[in-house]
Design goal:
alpha+beta, two-stranded antiparallel sheet, elongated, Flag_bb_rod_N, Flagellar basal body protein
Length: 137
């Protein structure tokens, strides 16, 4: 595997984990989005990563993100009689998003993004060191 391959693979990782972080941020921002009980609740989006085939043995091509996965629109009924969207009994529909799960996933995505950025930085530094070998003579 060449250093350029390492940069390309880590680049797909950066893109995938950025997509995951964006999805998690959208879910966290809408955790308290209320809707009427007659309509669907906000649907959280989830990101799945798929391995891409590479040139070497069909592996090592990186990853690709898919954010088409959505949670159920059922949500949970919450008693908020002061909410303008509340029904006659005082209930609104909130999304069924687990905030602790979202925050845990956000930390994992952030660490993975940082790891991929570190790989790119190390590969770039290795190339720079190789160029400097010939300059010092």
């Amino acid at each position: 595997m060449s250093l350029f391959s390492a940069i390309n693979i880590s680049g797909t990782g950066l893109s995938t984990f950025r997509t995951w972080i964006d999805s998690l941020a959208n879910n966290i921002a809408n955790v308290n989005t209320a809707t009427s009980t007659s309509g669907p609740a906000f649907q959280a989006t989830y990101t799945a990563a798929t391995a891409l085939p590479g040139a070497e043995n069909g592996t090592g091509g990186g990853v690709q993100a898919d954010t088409s996965l959505k949670s159920s629109a059922t949500g949970r009924l919450t008693y908020q009689p002061d909410n303008p969207l509340a029904d006659a009994q005082g209930y609104v529909r909130l999304p069924d998003i687990d905030m602790s799960e979202q925050m845990g996933n956000l930390i994992m995505a952030q660490r993975a993004f940082q790891a991929n950025a570190a790989v790119i930085d190390r590969a770039k530094q290795t190339y720079q060191d190789a160029i400097n070998i010939g300059k010092n003579r």
